[in-house]
Write a structure and sequence with these properties.
The chain is about 40% helix and about 30% strand. A 5-stranded antiparallel β-sheet has the order 7-6-5-4-8, covered by helices on one side. Strands 10-11-9-12 form a 4-stranded antiparallel β-sheet, covered by helices on one side. Strands 1-3-2 form a 3-stranded antiparallel β-sheet. The radius of gyration is 29 Å and the shape is elongated. Helix 2 (about 20-30) packs across helix 3 (about 30-45). It is of the alpha+beta class and about 300 residues long. The termini are far apart. The chain folds into 4 domains: about 1-65, Winged helix-like DNA-binding domain superfamily/Winged helix DNA-binding domain (Arc Repressor Mutant, subunit A), CATH 1.10.10.10; about 70-105; about 125-200, SH3 type barrels; about 220-295, no CATH class.
Length: about 300
């Protein structure tokens, strides 16, 4: 109890800069004599606490003390605060309180210059809670159960041991051990439905796992010719190294993608503004899909 109170006194002195012994005694519900003994203990431990008499007097701690002891540069302190603020995106419990305390320790203002939200615009609260459930399952090592829609539109119930969230290619994925397939799998999060956190705790099978390229996805190089009428989509969705060249009317884009139904739907979303240059089989399949789509309007 005494150790907790000693830490509490230091924290209050850092936060308030100046406090009276009466205020400390009232806060910790102890006598003034106990507070005086605590201050003496802290001074003997080498913490630079001083007292000042008269108007605006009280007990205070040297302002530079914490910064001198942290062994962290100003840049490193800012990076820690940025990392903590980003935890708000997954609704990490008590994160605002933690940021406030660390800001005080570093003697910095809690300036929320960044706001991170993993969900899409217009997302429901249920969708936003997905990341919170997955975070809990990974940290607490609890199984999850969910319905998963594959690229063919088929749905299966899965039970998995979650290990890591991955953001790649503008999409979120979950890496984990699938008990149904008895193997490691990467699941696209937005194909997961009815996610439930189970009570069973699992033992992590890999202590130092490394995610390799997923052999379940065959990657194909696709070359596109995209009209500059939708230049905004090119800038939004492709990196500069994927844009091989451009002329007065078109962008020529080359990218690596796994061929599934999502890819064809994505290409069709460009409408008349895109032409698949290669490979030939992708052109032919896209042509067939356009033909089938036209039948809906005849």
């Amino acid at each position: 109890m005494k150790i907790s109170r000693l830490f509490g006194i230091v924290y209050i002195l850092i936060a308030k800069k100046n406090v009276t012994s009466e205020e400390l005694a009232k806060h910790f519900e102890v006598s003034l004599r106990t507070i005086y003994r605590d201050i003496n203990t802290l001074c003997e431990a080498g913490i630079p606490i001083y007292s000042k008499q008269g108007k605006n007097g009280g007990i205070y701690i040297v302002e530079s003390y914490i910064l001198d002891k942290t062994l962290l540069s100003n840049k490193e302190q800012n990076e820690i605060l940025i990392g903590l603020q980003s935890l708000g995106a997954i609704k990490y419990p008590e994160v605002e309180n933690i940021v406030s305390k660390i800001s005080t320790v570093f003697n910095k203002q809690d300036e929320k210059w960044i706001d991170i939200d993993f969900s899409n615009w217009g997302s429901s609260e249920e969708e936003k809670d997905i990341f919170n459930v997955l975070k809990s399952s990974i940290l607490d090592r609890k199984l999850i159960e969910f319905s998963y829609y594959n690229s063919k539109g088929e749905v299966e119930k899965r039970i998995a041991e979650p290990m890591q969230l991955i953001f790649k290619g503008r999409n979120w994925y979950l890496y984990g051990f699938c008990r149904n397939k008895n193997d490691y799998r990467i699941f696209k999060i937005y194909r997961m439905r009815e996610i439930k956190l189970l009570s069973e705790i699992f033992e992590r099978k890999e202590k130092n796992y490394k995610i390799e390229a997923n052999s379940n996805y065959e990657v194909t190089c696709i070359s596109l010719k995209i009209s500059k009428r939708i230049a905004y989509r090119v800038y939004d969705e492709f990196s500069p190294n994927q844009i091989e060249k451009e002329d007065e009317n078109y962008f020529y884009v080359s990218l690596q993608m796994s061929l599934d139904e999502w890819v064809y739907g994505y290409l069709l979303s460009f409408g008349e503004n895109v032409e698949v240059i290669s490979p030939k089989d992708v052109r032919e399949k896209l042509y067939q899909k356009l033909q089938n789509s036209m039948k809906n309007y005849l």
